[in-house]
Amino acid sequence: MLLRIEDIDAPRVVKDADRWIMDDLTWLGLDWDGDAVYQSQRLDAYEEALRRLRERGLVYPCFCSRADIRAASAPNEGDGFLIYPGTCRRLSAGERESRVIRGDRHSWRLVVPDGAPADALGCASSHVDDAAQAMHAALAVGLPRVVCFADRVFGPQRFDLPRQLGDVVVRRSDGLFAYQLAVSVDDMAMGVTQIVRGRDLLRSTAIQLYVRRCLGSADMPEFAHLPLIDAADGRRMAKRLNSLDLGAMREHGDDPRAVVGYCAWLLRLVGEPRPMTPQELLPLFSWDAVAADTADRVVDVDMLLR
């Protein structure tokens, strides 16, 4: 397991949050290989990646504000994600250059292909290895309009880039590198082979696979997206639930084994919550069990803290 501290958004970084994360992991009985990687120390790598994208003509300056984009776009698929309408993509090269020289505030966006969708990207296969091989073959012949991958939990995924994602920001107008570029560069540099995260990032996976291809990589990690955890009122878990903050639980004297066991139960790996260590959980783990129930989970605080 690799530990990466994603502190690239400097204005939002909380002092000592990295140490809290490490302390929480240690308390749960989890460790990681090697030193933690800090994104704030890898700005040169992101700058180099952006330079390569610019050399290939795959990015362009965008002068639109968030208000401009909201006014010109409709939310996609009811989830609030805005598809950039391509306003600045249609500007002439001369107009783009003159506005940059003039100092107009701008971000940098990555171009996604237009044209007929490419269908041979692995979506027809439900097998992870078959999908990966098809994806590699399709990426080898050029930049795809359609990105597909087989998820360990949610199965085959297919994203039409211009229709569902649009030209994504890789450097923000405030000069900070965007999450999608930074994590893609880091995953390649760190040799990440398996990524497990929430289902709300399925769309991000398609973006990141495309970013990787634009940077010359056809390798595809194995992905597993998990159901989200909701509070009892049906809303997503948030920091407002201080009682479930791991640091607060540790200070309160709660048993970390109870947390691990409860998570195992949420993932349908055990029939009922019971205290266990990560080492005791390992032989019980099964992706088939996790994938058998993809509904979001609701946390019962009383059950967890009893």
UniProtKB/TrEMBL annotation:
Pfam families linked: tRNA-synt_1c
Alphabetized GO MF terms: ATP binding; glutamate-tRNA ligase activity
Keyword vocabulary terms for this entry: Aminoacyl-tRNA synthetase, ATP-binding, Ligase, Nucleotide-binding, Protein biosynthesis
Name under which the protein is recorded: Glutamyl-and glutaminyl-tRNA synthetase
Record EC number: 6.1.1.17
GO biological process annotation, one example: glutamyl-tRNA aminoacylation
Top EC class for this record: ligase
GO cellular component entries: cytosol
Keyword ATP-binding: yes
Gene3D superfamilies: HUPs
Highest taxon of source: Bacteria
Residues of the Glutamyl/glutaminyl-tRNA synthetase class Ib catalytic domain: 1-117, 147-264
InterPro entries found in the cross-reference section: Glu/Gln-tRNA-synth_Ib_cat-dom, GluQ/Sye, Rossmann-like_a/b/a_fold
Recorded family membership: Belongs to the class-I aminoacyl-tRNA synthetase family.
